[in-house]
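# nightly structure sweep
# worker-07 picked up a monomer target from the shared queue
# config: single-sequence mode, recycle default, output format = structure tokens
# input follows
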Amino acid sequence: MALALPLHFFHALFMLVFLLSRMQFSLSSSGFIGVNYGRVADDLPSPAQVVQLLKAQGITKTKIFDTDATVLSAFSGSNITITVGLQNQQLSDAAGSQSFTDTWVQSNILPYYPNTLIDAIAVGNEIIFAGLQDSTQLLVPAMKNVYASLVKYNVASSIKVSSPIALGALETSYPPSAGSFKPDLVEPVIKPLLSFLKQAGSYLMVNAYPFFAYTANSDTISLDYALFKDNTGATDPNNGLVYKSLLEAQLDSVFAAMNAVGFNDVKMVVTETGWPSKGDENQNGPSEQNAASYNGNLVRRVLTGGGTPLRPDEPLNVYIFALFNENQKTGPTTERNFGLFYPNEEKVYDIPLH
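# output follows
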């Protein structure tokens, strides 16, 4: 005899399945927070101490700008994933010969991976923005050679190849839907770059700093809008999308620029963003309070889940710049004060990082 189950049992079962599916969605749609570990300083803790600091803060992703052997060795067995860099001055050699990138991978990746969880290689940094015409032409050939070397040594499936671009590569960034790349970059480098990323299953690395946009335009950009604070928002007149933060507007201008050249399916990782805690008298915006607001609200926004108005289903994945204040960086005072921590490992300001 079949057992008749009461209706409320099926209702409860349905609700359980529904809630579990929502939980799965919310977990999958939350992005990650990583931190850039810059080392342009003469007073930083040892790499081994840095690993312990990251662990204590619950940070599981970091990014460096080279392939320093001491750093990569210190991260061995840490379960912290690390993005490494092939530096700008190596670009010409990397573009000219796969034998160079074979040797580079043999020397800088294979001795450490997989005990050190290298998850990506940034080939150059802001090459396009730097206005180095010769280097711009070298970028994609260098990336292709690095990728070919990773394929040769059977690690290409787990180590991505990309290159960070700055918002200076854009001709137009406002409104976001009108985002476009500088015309002279589109055919020589942007399309080949995006084509390579798509074929290699990689993502575009973007360095985006609302701070610089705000400090240059503080008469027209609301500080609350730049800091992810409550604000009325900015409506894109072309599509009606409402933006509650300057960073999301900046990122969507890049997405729109990619759409405009025929690449609407390349994903993005924000490889640098941050806010300085100190600046010069003539700069608007730098302060501990504003830095804490920006980075703290950024972490909450990323971990809440969801994407930008143009790409709502793609989570925000972000590396904050930077772990430490770096005393040997040149330029205005702000450049030496983007850190979350002082070199003695004390927090510059207190925010959650996970």
